[in-house]
Structures are given as C-alpha cells and as structure tokens.
Amino acid sequence: MRRMDDSPLDALVTPAALVDLDRVEANLRRVADYTREHGLRWRPHTKTHKTAELTALQLAAGAVGATVATPREAEVMSTVSDDVLLAYPPVGRGRLARLMALPAGTRLTVALDSSEALDGLGRAARDAGRTVGVLVELDMGMRRVGVQSPDDAVALARAITTTGGVAYRGVIFYPGHLRAAVSEQGASLVEQTTRLGGFLDALTAAGLRPEVVSGGSTPTLWRSHEVAGLTEIRPGINVLNDRNTAAVGACAWSECAFSVLATVVSTAVPGQVVIDAGSKALAKEEGLAAGGGYGALLDRPDVLVRGLSEEHGLLDVSATTWRPRVGERVRVVPNHVCAAVNLHERLHVLRGDAVTTSWAVAARGW
C-alpha cells in the first residue's frame, strides 16, 4: 500500500469516487458482444452512474438508448441520447411537465401500470403536442409495481390505444427479486418464461402483440436469453459493477470499475482501521456477499468495511496482518454502486493510476 505522498492520486481530496476506464470499456465490450450474439437490444439503466459521459460510451458501444428513473436523469441523458425510456410511473404534474419539456427530437417512452397514470400522461402529451410511447408494466414476481394478470395487461394496453397523445409500444418488467447466484438461476428463469408467456399470449390474442418486451437486470444479465420472448434488456450496474454483483457471480472482482478512494485517519483501536469514507460516501446498505459489511478493499477484498457512521468507515483488520499507517490511502468497492455514486458530485476517471479527467454526476437528485 502506498503512502499518501507517493500516490499518483495524491491531488484528490478524499473521499473521492473513482472510475477505472479500462475496466468500464471491457465491461461494455462484454455486454455488447452478449446482446449481439443473442439478438437482444441493449438499453442500459443510467441510474447507476448518472453521468452523460458514461451514457455516451454505452451508446458508442452499441446501446440503442438510455433508461432512466427520474426527470433529472431524463433531462441529462437526453443531451446525449435521442431515445429515452422512463422506467417509472409518470405520476404528478411536476414530473410530467419536466418530461414534456424534453427536446422535441427525443423519442420518449414511459412505463406505467394504471389508468390514472395513463390519463395524466395523455393530457400532458396532448397539451405539449407530442406523442409519448407507453410500455405496460408487468409484475413478474418482485411485488413492487406492475399489473397482476394477463387480463389486466390487455385492459390497460387497450386503453393506451384509445388515448390521445400516447402510443402503445409493448411491455416492461424488472426481475429484481432474482438475486441468486448466476449458476442457480435456472428454475427461476423458467418460471419467468412461463409467466411472461401468459402475458404475451393474452396480448397477442387480443391483437395487441408487443413490439417491445423489455426486461433484465444485472444479476440475471448473462442468462437473459433464456427468458423466451424478451427483446431488450436494461442492466445498469454492469457498466461499473460492485460487491453485490461479484457476490452472485455476475462479474469477476477484476471487473469492478468503481471504487471510493479514502484516507486512513486512525489506527488507535486494535484490530480496526478508520478511513474518512463513511455512510455519506459509501451508502449504508447491506449486501449479498458473505461476511456482511458495507464494502471491501479493491486490492484486499478480504478486508471488509464492517461499520459506517457519517464520516467514518471502520475496516476490520483482525483477520489479516496488514497494518496501514495513518495517511495511507485505500480504495473501497461498495456493496451497491448505484447508491454510492449518488453521494458524489464528480467521478474521477482513471487510466491505470493516473486521473485523466472528471465527470459531473449531473443527474443526481430528482
């Protein structure tokens, strides 16, 4: 471990969010190759990184458009993508007004699961003089949002076709409840195919065959082709990856491209090292990895962040001989990269150990 005054990252004030661009590019090539091989469209979810520059890299690698969750993400990503999917019910005048103010050339599609959301969207779109695509959200087992039955999907799709200002484009779902190891997902993916097939059969029989069947997640990314009927996937985390993703086998530890640079500020308590990255830099979110904790060191994944307060991160070194000095720097891979990125104003971009540029996390907030 280098001392603070030896490191090429010296100039950064910690905690600082780092992105390894070599790893990002390798991650993008991998998913681009996979989607081409299996005939799937790739529409990455930008909630993970919230930066226009990373979206531009994803588009250059073969993505067909951007997925977003908030009006702010839509505003930022529409500066680099002319095709934006809001995978969140567009409820409320404020949210709708911001969506309708997106550039006229932006092909906007939204996901919804209620007639109330549809009515509000239709009015806003008509008033704005634009047509907005709509995907019917299906509940495929996560029990968060989505219509509950094929009959419900047919009824909502029919309503979309008779509502001015909108156009029916298909269906969408998110299998976020599937978080098992990649090697253990087989039975769950068969169940997803069966459940999805019921929705698709009902819609097709009603003359409402979906053009778009949008699904997928990072944990299930590499087995997405096993879900029959899927036409596009929306992984977010895989561009950067994190400890959770590695824990389920959806990436190798060497494919984790995001870390938080921190400085050792105390070693006074035996068996413990304190760094200056706490819950306001790493996010206090429990994960899927064995051993618990809130993150692990990039170059020492056996050293876990066992505790977080607002400005303090507690590293457990009781099972290792590593004993850093005050002033040394470490890089922490968080459990959940999406939550961690949102805590930082800028991403510092690395080539090797050199900081080449920085990107504003411009889509933070609402």
Explain what you see.
This protein is of the alpha/beta class and 366 residues long. Helices cover 28% and strands 23% of the residues. The protein has ten helices and 17 strands. The strands form two sheets. Strands 1, 10, 11, 12, 13, 14, 15, 16 and 17 form a nine-stranded mixed sheet that branches. Helix 4 (93-100) links the parallel strand 4 and strand 5 (107-112). It is globular and about 70 Å long. Mean pLDDT is 96; it is low at 1-6.
Secondary-structure map:
Elements: E1 16-20, H1 21-38, E2 41-42, H2 52-61, E3 66-68, H3 71-77, E4 83-86, H4 93-100, E5 107-112, H5 115-128, E6 132-137, H6 150-161, E7 166-172, H7 186-205, E8 212-215, E9 232-233, H8 243-247, E10 258-266, E11 272-275, H9 279-282, E12 295-297, E13 304-308, E14 313-316, E15 329-334, H10 337-341, E16 346-351, E17 354-360
Parallel strand pairs: 1-16, 2-9, 3-4, 4-5, 5-6, 6-7, 7-8, 8-9
Antiparallel strand pairs: 1-10, 10-11, 10-15, 11-14, 12-15, 13-14, 16-17
Write out key terms for the chains shown.
globular; single chain; 23% strand; 366 residues; alpha/beta
Intertermini distance: 39 Å
Mean pLDDT: 96
Report the uncertain regions. Answer: 1-6
Q: Estimate percent helicity.
A: 25-40%
| Main β sheet profile | 9 strands, mixed
Please write the string of helix (H) and strand (E) elements: EHEHEHEHEHEHEHEEHEEHEEEEHEE
Counted by DSSP, the helix tally is: 10
Radius of gyration: 22 Å
